[in-house]
Amino acid sequence: MKITNICDKELMNKWEKSMQELTLTTQDGIKIAVNHYEKDTNSVIIIAPGWFMTKDSKSFKQMSEIFNKYCAVLAMDFRGHGKSSGFYTFTSKEINDINSVIEFAQSKYKKIYMIGFSLGAAIVLIAGANHKEIEKIIAVSAPACFEKIENKVWKKEAWLPTLKKCELNRWFSIRPSLIPKKKIKPIDIVDNITSPTLFIAGEKDPTVENWHTKALFTKAVCSKKYELFENCCHAEDLFIQDREKFVNICCKWLFNDNNE
Questions:
Q1: Element (H or E) spanning 162, and its range?
Q2: Phi/psi at 48 (nearest 5 deg)?
Q3: First to last CA, the chain
Q4: Residue 168 domain flag
Q5: 3-class DSSP state for residue 53?
Q6: CB hemisphere CA count around 219 (13 angstroms)
Q7: Kindly report the CA angle at 134 between 230 and 205, in degrees rounded to 5?
Q8: For 5-9, 97-101, 188-192, which range has the lowest pLDDT when averaged over its residues?
Q9: Which uninterrupted H or E stretch holds 49?
Q10: Is 7 domain-assigned?
Q11: Helix, strand or coil, per DSSP, at residue 86
């Protein structure tokens, strides 16, 4: 199945007008902001950005509009990001955030897909281990363990893509928690996932080196696939650097019955 890019400004304006902003409340009282792109369908994809990214970042808005051609979309801000309240705990409490989005999705849709990026991918995997009803999962640049993230911010491959994605409104919205909290390691729970899962990594990822994704893929026992993007970096950078390939691979995985 060939998926083409969406560049038509009129279509993008149409999607923005049809998008609804929702506020959901987690079980621990945090307000989670969600962009809901509706579609007359029984399926929805939850988009979970990583640390320092939001649902309103340019790349995630474009991604939401593309996926909205095929299903409804729920793009979220984790706590401490964008329009959500609270402080970001680097995967300790964010499971509550995505659980609130899954609960909302279950009230409206029969099929729920999830795609997560970086720490958002770690949270998606943790959620997938708990929610057997999730139809399919995509984890992009997921760390096997938070404590082993390399995050070589001084490398050109790390700071140059970050500079290109500079959005001052987003940067000023980020609120991290400075209190260390216990974290679930994705490598410890990935073999509990039963939903078909696509693992994607960047060959030149300086932030979460691709061995993390390979280790998660190797330990997973569900129907699975591993994709390595040559000469690409981290998380949403894969979408930015090789959009056509990224969209085609993701949509083929999600919307084709045969994932081979």
A1: helix 156-164
A2: -115, 100
A3: 13
A4: yes
A5: coil
A6: 16
A7: 20
A8: 5-9
A9: none
A10: no
A11: coil
pTM attached to this predicted model: 0.90
Three-state DSSP state, 229:
strand
Residue 41's domain comprises 21-255
H-state helical runs in 28-118: 58-67, 94-106
* Cα 82 to Cα 74: distance, rounded to the nearest angstrom: 15
The neighbour count for residue 92, using CB atoms within 10 Å, is 16
Residue 100 contacts residue 29 (beta carbons within 8 Å): no
Q: Per the domain annotation, does 260 fall within a domain?
A: no
Task: Answer yes or no: is 188 within a domain.
Answer: yes
Burial class of residue 128 (count of CB atoms within 10 Å of its CB; 0-12, 13-18, 19+): buried
Report the largest interatomic distance among the alpha carbons of the chain, rounded to a whole angstrom.
Answer: 46
122, burial (CB in 10 Å: exposed 0-12, middle 13-18, buried 19+): buried
Residue 73 tokens read as 């979309």
**Torsion of Cα atoms, 70 then 74 then 76 then 82, to 10°:** 90
Look at residues 228, 178, 235 and name the one whose alpha carbon lies nearest to residue 51: 235
For the residues 237-256, what does the mean pLDDT come to?
96
Q: CA angle at residue 233 from 230 to 238, to 5 degrees? A: 75
Domain count, the chain: 1
How far apart are the C-alpha atoms of 7 and 95, rounded to whole Å? 34
pLDDT band (50, 70, 90) for residue 7: very low
B/e letters for 145-159, b = 16+ CB within 10 Å, e = fewer, are: bbeebeeeeeeebbe
What tokens does 129 get? 């281990």
The pLDDT of residue 2: 37
Question: What is the CATH number for 218?
Answer: 3.40.50.1820
